[in-house]
Write a structure and sequence with these properties.
Chain lengths: ~280, ~280
């Protein structure tokens, strides 16, 4: 049993090692995405700093500082969750583009192990990017973390990652089923999740039909909980109302995403879609 | 191009104790067509009731024009497609029910080299080895040895694959398949597009591998010379059906001592080049 777990971890590590090697070879693009992430987050932070001028009314320095952190928590948390969604969502599309998809699916690696390996690689990259963006932004914008409860924030972030992995595995199915337009569909899903999850605003400002979608998005709970932890120092008990829905989504979405993926793989093998070109 | 009769191939020598490395029975595969086909159907029968057996240690050449169903058959045997009907077994294991066990026994080389283009040959091959449970400590020296034998300069092992020529990439693809020591090797037109020298090197390596490592090889080709040079037995695939099968000597005898080209023409009603040209015209 232990030997088997070790062997599966070894197989899963192949994907982590491969993704790290690819990141090194595509280093110029990685810098592009990092700069893009920093610039986007900084732009959002400057909106908060410019709030007094934009609204035309005086704002207390404490309110501005809170507004900066409010937006930064949203944008950086979304960057982290979005990267998980993107990279997992591109699991199939990327291999199809490289032309390696047939060899990956022919290899004697259980699909669950394959996806766990890809999740591991994705989490390493998303975490690296998010920390780098936070550090870079902190150089330009005053970030007040005096009241932050770091433990609560980390638990929420980990829970959010798990929940997003499940959703992302589900969305990786699109390129498997629709070889030409599947990736575009996955991006649309991601964009809708961004809109309804209260990344830059409270979800209460959304039309009621969008609030229904925000109710099922795990990002809504993770971002709200992160704000409570980092702005108000909420402990785990205080963030529990946001923690359990995210945990629930993760508990449902991962096995469901895996099942959908396995079904899609069988369907692709029946219809001849498991190949390098559509 | 005369068929060269090999005296006592291994499959003939061990007729009584032979094991089926690959056994396909009544395999069919059709794909939906975007247009209505002549006859009113909406599905293209890529593989139509094919039954064949490849014996352990044998090189079986599957000969056919473009679009005859060779690659579909290889993809079916590689677990990348599921058959609509029929059964495929690899060393007695059903490819559907025992998929993981079958995957451990097979590997494949396709027409396209199919690698992560920015990664080096070494990075690609170490990754491929890991997927088959071969650790980098074991795979690295093995990779160097196989590629040296295939004539790839050691100095180029750490260059991105996209900088290597098509011939070199195909040699790396062959090394990837051999690295995992497969019991059944599926070679889908491995020498298509290679220059004469690379083609010969690959062919020699394939024969050496079979002779030295007890590998069983199913080779698809539309090169008559390659089929005659490498295969112990040859099957001719035409419009998804296996229309002739036998050792080169048996096929020649059935067709009054003709060449492999004569055999192909009698079995399919057209010359191989004509069939290729006609298929190219149909698909463009």
């Amino acid at each position: 049993m232990i030997t088997n777990v070790g062997a599966q971890l070894g197989l899963a590590y192949a994907f982590v090692e491969r993704e790290i090697a690819l990141s090194k070879r595509y280093w110029a693009w990685e810098i592009v995405w990092l700069v893009y992430g920093i610039v986007t987050s900084l732009s959002v932070a400057y909106i908060a700093l410019g709030a007094p001028a934009i609204t035309g009314g005086p704002l207390a320095p404490g309110d501005v500082s809170r507004f900066v952190l409010y937006l930064l928590v949203g944008t950086i948390t979304w960057r982290f969750l979005g990267l998980i969604f993107e990279q997992m969502g591109e699991t199939i599309a990327w291999e199809r583009w490289e032309g390696t998809i047939e060899y990956t699916f022919m290899a004697p690696v259980p699909r669950v192990t394959h996806l766990i390996g890809m999740c591991g690689a994705t989490l390493v990259r998303a975490l690296g990017f998010s920390v780098a963006i936070l550090a870079a932004v902190a150089l330009f914008v005053p970030v007040d973390l005096a009241h932050a409860n770091v433990l609560s924030a980390l638990v929420l972030l980990a829970t959010g990652a798990v929940a997003f992995v499940g959703l992302a595995i589900g969305s990786a199915v699109f390129p498997l089923l629709w070889t030409e337009k599947g990736l575009q569909m996955a991006y649309i899903v991601q964009a809708v999740v961004l809109l309804v999850s209260g990344v830059y605003y409270e979800t209460s400002v959304l039309p009621s039909w969008m609030q229904v979608l925000s109710f099922i998005s795990p990002a809504t709970y993770v971002i709200r909980g992160m704000r409570a932890a980092l702005l108000d120092g909420a402990d785990l008990a205080a963030v529990w109302p946001d923690l359990w829905p995210a945990l629930l989504v993760g508990a449902i979405s991962i096995p469901l995403g895996m099942r959908i993926f396995l079904w899609a793989e069988r369907h692709a093998k029946k219809t001849g879609r498991l190949k390098r070109s559509g | 191009m005369a068929i060269q009769v090999r005296e006592a191939t291994r499959s003939e020598a061990n007729k009584d104790e032979r094991t089926a490395a690959l056994a396909a029975s009544g395999v069919r595969k059709a794909f939906p067509s975007a247009r209505v086909l002549p006859g009113g159907g909406m599905a293209v029968r890529a593989v139509d009731d094919v039954s064949l057996e490849v014996w352990r240690g044998e090189i079986y050449g599957l000969l056919g024009a473009n679009g005859s169903g060779k690659s579909t058959l290889i993809r079916l045997f590689s677990t990348l497609l599921t058959p609509d009907a029929g059964e495929v077994r690899v060393f007695g294991r059903d490819i559907g029910r025992d998929e993981l066990a079958v995957k451990r026994m097979i590997n494949r080389v396709s027409v396209e080299a199919s690698f992560f283009k920015k990664l080096s040959a070494m990075e690609n091959l170490v990754y491929a080895g890991r997927l088959y449970g071969v650790s980098p400590e074991v795979s690295r020296p093995k990779i160097q040895s196989i590629l040296r034998r295939l004539g790839v300069e050691q100095g180029r092992l750490n260059e991105p694959l996209e900088k290597l020529s098509r011939g070199m990439q195909q040699k790396v693809a062959i090394a990837r398949a051999f690295l995992t020591a497969p019991m059944l090797l599926l070679l889908d037109e491995p020498t298509t597009g290679l220059d004469i020298r690379s083609k010969r090197e690959v062919q020699t390596f394939v024969r050496d591998l079979r002779d030295e490592h007890d590998a069983t090889i199913l080779l698809t080709t539309h090169d008559l010379d390659e089929a005659a040079r490498l295969a112990d037995r040859i099957g001719i695939l035409h419009q998804g059906r296996l229309v002739a099968e036998g050792t080169p000597a048996e096929l020649a005898a059935r067709h009054r001592g003709g060449t492999l080209e004569d055999v192909f023409m009698t079995a399919t009603g057209r010359r191989l080049e004509e069939a290729d040209a006609s298929e190219t015209e149909r698909t463009t």
